[in-house]
Amino acid sequence: MYVAVKGGERAIDAAHALLAEERRGDTAIAELSVAQIREQLRLAVNRVMAEGSLYDPDLAALAIKQARGDLIEAIFLIRAYRTTLPRFGASRPVDTGKMACLRRISATFKDAPGGQVLGPTFDYTHRLLDFKLMAEGGAETAAEAPEPASVDPAPMPHIAEFLNRDGLIETDAPSDAEPGDLTRNPMQLPADRALRMQALTRGDEGFLLSLAYSTQRGYGRTHAFVGELRIGMVEVEMEIPELGFAVTVGEIELTECETVNQFQGSKTEPPQFTKGYGLVFGQSERKAISLSLVDRALRWQELGEEGQGVPAQDQEFVLMHADNVQATGFLEHIKLPHYVDFQSELELIRKLRAEAQAAPARADSPAEETAE
Amino acid sequence: MSTAASAAPADPDQAARQGWIGLLARAPARRLAALFPELPAHEPLRRPETGTVMVRGRLGATGAAFNLGEMTVTRCSLRLASGAVGHAQVQGRNKGHALRAAALDALMQGPEAERLRRQVLDPLAAEEAARRANRAAKAAATKVDFFTMVRGEDS
Fold this sequence. Notes:
The complex is a heterodimer of chains A (about 375) and B (about 160). Chain A is an alpha+beta fold and about 375 residues long. Chain A has helices at about 10-25, 35-40, 40-50, 55-65, 70-80, 160-165, 195-200, 205-215, 285-300, 315-320, 325-330, 340-365, 365-370, and strands at about 55, 85-95, 100-105, 225-240, 245-260, 275-280.
C-alpha cells in the first residue's frame, strides 16, 4: 500500500535557506567568485568537467560553488544541466599527436625526442605546507624566465611510435567506426573497448585509482610502465553541414597516458609490448594513469591472457560501479523516507519473533500438544 | 596553425575560410567584442543557440574512435543585406561571441574583408600566437637537461 504523506514543505524551505546561509559562511569574509574558483581551483574544476562529462570551466566552477565544494554533488549538477542541452553532433577524433604540450614525460625513454617537460607538476615538491600562501595579498611568485633558445615549436611525437618502428609494441589501427555512446543507449555487457573508455573517463577518480592500485599490488598484475604522459591543449574540429567542411570549434585541455605493459606472446602473435590508454578532460594525471592500468587489465580476454578472477578484470564489476552519480543516487536514496517499507519490515519481524517464541514450547512438549 | 588544415581543403578560399572561422572560435569573447563592437544589419537564419558537441578521441591515440565527453558550443547563422551568409560554432555559451563570429564570417566573404582582416583577424591571430608562444616557453623552461656523472672506472 502506498500512502501519500504531506507536510514537509515548510521544513524543506527552511532547510534550503539554511543551506544557502551555510554555503556563504562568515559574511565578514569576502565571497568567492566563480571566476576565482575557475582560475584558482583549476584541478577541482577539471575533475568536475571530466566526471560531469561536460567541458565548460565556468559551469564547473559554478557547480563547485553551489555544491559548497562537494565535487560529487557538483558533478551531479553538471550531469543534470547537460541533459537540458541539445547535442549538435560529434567532433572528429582529437589528434593528441598535435597537442601543444604543457607537460610531457616518459618513464621509459630518457632521451625521447621533444624531451622530458615537467610542466606545472606537484612531483619533486616536498609536500610541506607553504605558509606563504596564507599571507594574503603578497606571495606572488614570478613566472620562471623562459630561455627563448630552448623553445621547440615542433610537435612532440608519441613515444609509442619509436617502439612501433621495431614492431615491439602493438599498434592501434585507426578506425572511424561509429563508437557506442552510453549517454544515448544503456550500456550492454560485454562492452567493447571504446564504450569502456567512455565509461571509465567519466568514472570516479577514487574508484579507478583503487582498482588500478589493486592491479599493481597483485590483483591482476600487468606490470605497467608509464610510456608517456602528456598534458596540453588540442583543437576540436567538427564537420559543419552548412559549410560542407570541418572547422575548429574550440580548444580543450586534455591529459593523456599510455602505459607499456608486458605480454608473453601467443600461438599467433610474437611477444610484444601491449598498451593501456587513458584520456581525460583537463589536467588529471592520477586519473589518466589509473585509467590506463584499468583499461589494460580489462583487455585480458582480447589479448588471450588467463583470467585471474580479480576485480580489475571483471567488466561488470568495474563498469557498473565506476559512476559516482549513479552510486551516490542509489546509496543516498536509503536516507530518504522509507516509513512504509520499514513499517512492513517491522510487522514481519514481530510476526517472526512471535512465531519463534511460540515454537520452542511446541518442540519441548510434543505430548502436550497432541493431547490438546 | 589550425589542425583543420589536415582536412586538405580543395581550394584556397575554403582554406582561408576554415582559418578565420577557427580563429574566431578560439578567440576570447571579450577581446572579439572589443575589436568588433558593432554588429552589421543582418537577418538571423539561426539565432544563437547553446548546445553540446560530443568530443571524440582515439584508443591508444591512433586507434578506434571513442566518446570522451561533451563540450558546450554556441552556434549561429545569419545573412547580411548583401546576401552573404555567415556561420559560427564557438566553444562555450556566449551568444554574443557566436553572433560576432557569424557576422565576421559573412563580412569576410565581401568587400570589407581586407579592412576586417587588418582590424580584427590579424590582432586576434597575433595575440593567439603570443599566448601560445608564452605557454610553450614556460613549458620549455621546465624541460630536463640530463647530464651523466663521470664514474670512477671510466676515467
